[in-house]
Amino acid sequence: MTAVWARIIMRYLSGALVSAGFISADFGARIATDTDLHGVLVMALGAVLAVIAEWAYRLAKRFGWAT
User: What's the gap between Cα 6 and its chain centre?
Assistant: First the structure.
């Protein structure tokens, strides 16, 4: 499921950069389909989700909620 979100993020990000004029349409297409960038983004997204889960656990422990 993380890979699906990463692919969606890559497409929207490259589309936003192309429409804003920061990058060319050709380069945006390469970003949207780059498999190496996709792998890095999947790992980064997984790390962010893990940090959020740990933060929520610590918050629950601090306030005495069920863990």
Answer: 5
Quick: pLDDT tens for 21-61.
998 999 888 888 888 888 888 888 889 999 999 999 999 99
Give the global pTM: 0.62
How far apart (Å, rounded) are the C-alpha atoms in residues 65 and 57?
9
Query: What is the SS3 assignment for the chain?
Result: CHHHHHHHHHHHHHHHHHHHCCCCHHHHHHHHHCHHHHHHHHHHHHHHHHHHHHHHHHHHHHHCCCC
